Amino acid sequence: MKARLTVAAGILAGVCLFWYALKGVDFTRLSEACRQADYALLALAVLTNLAEAFMRGVKWKLLLDPVNRVRVWDSFRMETAGLALNNVLPFRLGEILRGTAGAGVFHMPVVTVFATIVVERALDVIALVLLLSLVGISGRVEGDIFQHKSAIILLFTAVAAGICAVIFADRLVKLKILEPLFTRFVFLKKILSQIAAGAVAFKDWKRGIITVLAAMFQWCVNAFTILVLVYAFHLQDMLGPAHCIVVTVASAIACSIPAMPGFFGNYEAGVAAVMGVWGVQKDAAFAMAFTGHILGYITITLAGLIFVYGLGYSVGRVWNFRSGNSGTSTGKEIL
């Protein structure tokens, strides 16, 4: 019952966000914007979506290699399979597949693989905040937050704190001065312990820098996809590369809100809202956001499901694992 209520609440949240994104849209102009789009550039957006998924695989490989060297093809297909399941199932069940199936593919403990997934999420936050800070320094984007140096300094401080938390997570959990904090907030110690287990790559500062740069490049590819969509919908006079990075950050934040599988509603609301700040008409913003979302959804879901079934898994079995066996399963029952 609890699971069904959670799914229903997620769907309701997605519907509400989708309604918010559509509010005030002129459907005649929306249809016209779609008809006038450059379809060759939309085809390019399909390729850049796959390129970003590949970069996700490279980023994860860098986190896994210190434990046991893995092939980039394996990390890429596991990443894409996980994204596909997140697109069709609730509760981000793709992460369960990545952790359990990845353990077998990478020949390492399940706990270690899950730890690298936790670190990967922390790394995404660091990369996005760092990119947003660089945009602020560049002065190429209008917005209240970028007019205040204190805000930019705060962003850099957040990045520095995040990097230190990743690098020194194993030491932080052992500090006696933090014991009262961990006693009160047990989940903080658990998260730091998981980060410590998955942050082996950051023990070598050179590999750590390369890993952070890989994460930043992956999100830059995401921003490039948005830039391609900007040109496809003839909005290049209003939005440039720096704006696209801000849109990327906004969409990532929007998609972090629990909602329906595929993040429909979240993505459109986030993208349309931030583009509206720069004077983009809502119908044009929604047309670009929804078209880009559909293209990415179809591309990654189809590619990922091919990998899911190629690995011997199925959508139904992953869902049954969550709804029926999650309490006692060791992870093998998902097969």
Enumerate how many helices there are, as a single number.
15
Estimated radius of gyration? 20 Å
Which secondary-structure class do the elements indicate? mainly alpha
Overall mean pLDDT stands at 87
Write up this protein.
With 335 residues, this protein is mainly alpha-helical. The protein has one domain. Helices cover 75% and strands 0% of the residues. The protein has 15 helices and no strands. It has helices spanning 2-22, 27-35, 39-64, 72-88, 94-106, 110-138, 149-167, 169-172, 179-184, 186-198, 205-232, 241-255, 266-277, 282-310, 315-325. The chain is globular.
In summary, what is this structure?
This protein has 335 residues and is mainly alpha-helical. It has helices at residues 2-22, 27-35, 39-64, 72-88, 94-106, 110-138, 149-167, 169-172, 179-184, 186-198, 205-232, 241-255, 266-277, 282-310, 315-325.
